[in-house]
Design a protein that fits this description.
- By secondary structure, this protein is mainly α.
- It folds into two domains: about 1-165, no CATH class; about 175-395, no CATH class.
- It has helices spanning about 5-30, 35-55, 65-85, 85-90, 100-110, 125-140, 140-150, 155-165, 175-200, 205-215, 235-250, 250-260, 270-290, 300-315, 330-340, 355-370, 390-415, 420-430, 450-465, 470-480; strands at about 380, 385.
- A hairpin with a 2-residue loop joins strand 1 (about 380) and strand 2.
- The N and C termini lie close together (about 10 Å).
Length: about 475
């Protein structure tokens, strides 16, 4: 039995957290005397009122069941995306429809980084900051951020944590959920501070450095420039951002373990070494083809290939070149990376490399069993034995993931979108990557798509961020099934 009042109480906390960033954005608009002030202020006050009201009229709940935690997690993301569209819609301009405003909001919170904007640089700073803030908030999950600032309650903390974090991601943690959340937040904020400092020293303005750090570490890809990172034409900025995109796509628990010199670290983890090797192979192959096709010189090919592979592979989605004009072999490789994406326990979206790693390990186990039916084989990841239940869960997830983006692509073609755009957009949005190919390539945007397609893709982004299973489990639960 789900207690509606308990759910509403915690959804109020989530709205209050969002209102903090709305007020900061409004303050930036006020200081700069911008025309976005009213839109941001009205949104901030509305969000505060909606968040405060349950705190006055609903009592505190010390215990939250897993089912309630799951409900709060899913509806927390939905209500956050809806309230997050208010500043855009009230401001108007290119956000002149509900579909456009909602798409931009969902894209930010889910750290997808897809956009409907033709002229990003025309936006006031307050609205640009809000746009980057949505990615910052969504980076490690709005629910986890709220748990960080709430006092620990019996049952509530573990219920929320279980509903928000996949079983595979929790394997590297052997401590209490509150401490885990603090570790995630510590790594998250530390990376943002480090990148902001680096980008400022490399010549970015402080405002641009903060916004890009928010969206790099969140692996979102929202930029303050129309040409994304290409606007700076600075190889050192690109190298610095590549490093932070890559590190942000690795399990935050393992990053923390590496810094604190634990045994299970980046250098000892076999899946991480394989992840980096696959990225390196992708970079080499694309560099080779771009050079062979005489599109660029060898060093220029390496520069563009490395940035694009890491950008899409980490689900960040920044761009330094228009990949839509690349040879089909390179495009197909990049599409693979938008499916594989980063690792569990990071801010990256997508299928996750860990699942692909375990999928092939499971296939190997099955082949051995065919050859030696009486043998006993297990699947391991960094000396951890993967139980059969988790193996099955991974297989089901991969099938559902492929099925979801396939159905999405079909629905998009039904709205009149061409084949390549439909296919790549469905993969890019469920993977929370951002740019696709065709009409939605690196230097294009999603504005020209029909409103129906934008709603479909908005739902796809949320499904990707919530990793599909949570949403389906909630529907099953609300449908009265056990």
């Amino acid at each position: 039995m789900i207690r509606t009042k308990a759910v509403v109480k915690y959804l109020g906390y989530i709205l209050l957290f969002n209102s903090l960033f709305l007020f900061i954005s409004a303050a930036i608009s006020f200081v700069n005397k911008e025309n976005a002030l009213n839109a941001l202020l009205i949104s901030a006050v509305s969000c505060t009122v909606l968040g405060v009201t349950p705190q006055f009229f609903i009592r505190k709940y010390r215990e939250i069941s897993f089912h309630e935690g799951l409900t709060i997690s899913v509806f927390g993301w939905i209500i956050t995306c809806v309230i997050g569209m208010l500043p855009y819609y009230l401001f108007g301009g290119e956000f002149n429809t509900v579909a456009n405003a909602l798409f931009e909001s969902v894209s930010g919170y889910t750290t997808t980084g897809s956009s409907i904007l033709n002229d990003i640089e025309a936006l006031p700073k307050g609205l640009l900051f809000w746009r980057s803030s949505t990615a910052f908030i969504g980076g490690v999950g709005i629910v986890l951020f709220v748990l960080l600032v709430l006092p620990e309650k019996k049952g509530a903390m573990s219920s929320f944590y279980r509903s928000e974090v996949s079983d595979l991601s929790k394997m590297s943690f052997f401590t209490r959920s509150k401490q885990i959340i603090r570790i995630i937040a510590t790594v998250y904020f530390s990376l943002i501070i480090a990148e902001t400092t680096m980008l400022t020293l490399l010549g970015m303005s402080l405002f641009d450095a903060v916004c890009h750090s928010f969206t790099t570490v969140a692996t979102s890809g929202f930029s303050t420039k129309n040409l994304s990172i290409a606007a700076y034409d600075n190889v050192w900025i690109e190298v610095g951002i590549m490093f932070f995109m890559l590190i942000s796509s690795i399990h935050f628990g393992i990053i923390y373990a590496t810094i604190t010199r634990k045994k299970n670290n980046i250098f000892s983890s076999h899946p991480i070494r394989m992840y980096l090797l696959v990225m390196l192979i992708g970079i080499i192959l694309i560099t080779f083809q771009l050079t062979r096709e005489n599109l660029y010189g060898i060093w220029e090919s390496l520069r563009y290939a490395a940035f694009q592979v890491i950008s899409l592979g980490s689900t960040t989605g920044y761009a330094t070149v228009d990949t839509g004009n690349w040879p089909i072999f390179s495009i197909l490789l990049l599409i693979y990376f938008t499916i594989q994406c980063g690792m569990v326990g990071s801010t990256a979206g997508g299928m996750k490399f860990d699942r692909i790693y375990l999928f092939f390990a499971s296939v190997t186990k099955q082949l051995k069993l065919i050859l030696h039916p009486d043998g006993i084989y297990v699947v391991k990841m960094d000396k951890n034995v993967i139980n059969h239940e988790l193996e099955l869960q991974i297989m089901v997830f991969i099938i559902l993931y492929i099925l979801t983006f396939s159905v999405t692509a079909l629905l998009l073609t039904a709205t009149g979108v061409d084949g390549m755009s439909s296919f790549s957009a469905s993969i890019a949005t469920i993977g929370n990557v951002g740019p696709g190919f065709g009409e939605v390539s690196s230097f294009s945007n999603y504005r020209m798509l029909p409103d129906a397609a934008k709603y479909i893709l908005s739902a796809n982004m949320l499904l990707g961020r919530l990793e599909i299973m949570n949403v389906l489990a909630l529907f099953l639960m609300l449908g009265g099934k056990k």
